[in-house]
Amino acid sequence: MKLYIVGFGAGDYEYMTIQAKTALEESQVIAGYTTYIDLVKDYFYDKEFYSTPMKKEEERCRWAIEEALKGKTVSLVCSGDSGVYGLASLVLELAEEYPPFEIEIVPGVTAALSGGAVLGAPLSHDFAVISLSDLLTPWDKIESRLRHSAMADLVISLYNPSSKKRSDYLKRACSILLEYLREDTVCGYVKNIGREGEEAVLTTLNQLKDMTVDMFTTVFIGNSDTREINGKMVTPRGYRIQREESR
Amino acid sequence: MKLYIVGFGAGDYEYMTIQAKTALEESQVIAGYTTYIDLVKDYFYDKEFYSTPMKKEEERCRWAIEEALKGKTVSLVCSGDSGVYGLASLVLELAEEYPPFEIEIVPGVTAALSGGAVLGAPLSHDFAVISLSDLLTPWDKIESRLRHSAMADLVISLYNPSSKKRSDYLKRACSILLEYLREDTVCGYVKNIGREGEEAVLTTLNQLKDMTVDMFTTVFIGNSDTREINGKMVTPRGYRIQREESR
């Protein structure tokens, strides 16, 4: 009677933590969004799988909780991290309606980190992670977060930068950011991080405004210190003039 | 002739990705901060190790680059992610001074994610990651980032919240945030994430102001929606009223 909520990283097996691998191995049942189940199916073939399409999160979480309550060990998988825009919060909310059972949240490498590593080191200093999806958040709140992040000179990682219904949202976001940031602010994006068709592009904020990206893309907006070095996006920490403290 | 910059996660072996494990296995030499080398030494015992104390990052990076240039496969290890306050940016900057060689940045689970999983799901919606260390950043910039993040209703994860010389910095940060946020804003912190002595505390912003944490602690400040559910810190995404888009 245990439910793991597992972030399995960018996609391929190697991006998973050993903790995530162990949780999936221990599970009898693995539940998740269809695309993610397809990604893990090949490596954990002796499991029972339950997949639901994208917009059925609550149903999927309830199913996983109920399987756990039957006495099974269940993993609910999320791409990237299980917390960052993942299912961990929904499960913790829903669990209030059920008898007690064990929940273990297994973190994973979210797209800001895996995409950042592909581009170079854009997130070496303070940063914000903002989703451009207004399905769950009013646009004026998203806009305020963009404005404040730009005013604070935070590097920004944008999730869900586009969808069929929101094809101009990245353009809108860039236009807002351009009120505060230089046109030549170093930016980049990575499509299909850690999967077939991975594609990384370095650009400037002004050019990014007119680019088209899809929903499988993570976008990075540099801060005033971010530079392009040998084709990589690098936000210096200032080590070369000063010294680091531990992290 | 290859240099991996490897984020190995919170500490213990299981928090490492399979990609990180493979990189370390392939390496002849592993370099890092003494404490981190001690963490990986037990699992990769047949390697050559090079460790330097905390404030010798540039020396350590140059040593690793020079070993790679001798034709060796070298891993430079960082706790958490290799990008987020890690050594990836410094290596990319220093590499300009050397002949070309192959660099691969291996991302890892940063403390915001691993600590978040211990506390519950604090980062389920837009968030900022801010270091309180003013060794590399002027305090007024840190303060501005705190103010803007609070005004934008971002969840905040604070790195380096304290040190011997900066014992009152968390108090200063909380006082600034209290100008914008409710006194009962749900907050939490995790000490020694994924290591011996792990300790998680849930509290409120007003109480956090008077708490003492050490440099091995990661702090989380909720947004206006963050709640405590069954002893966990949860920022809802709004799934229960609306539907998710993919990430």
TrEMBL record, chains A, B:
The keyword Transferase applies. Pathway: Cofactor biosynthesis; adenosylcobalamin biosynthesis. Keywords: Cobalamin biosynthesis, Methyltransferase, S-adenosyl-L-methionine, Transferase. Pfam families: TP_methylase (PF00590). The keyword Transferase applies. One of its GO terms (molecular function) is methyltransferase activity. It comes from the Bacteria. SUPFAM superfamilies: Tetrapyrrole methylase. One of its GO terms (biological process) is methylation. NCBIfam families: cobJ_cbiH. This is Precorrin-3B C(17)-methyltransferase. It comes from Anaerocolumna cellulosilytica. The gene is cbiH.
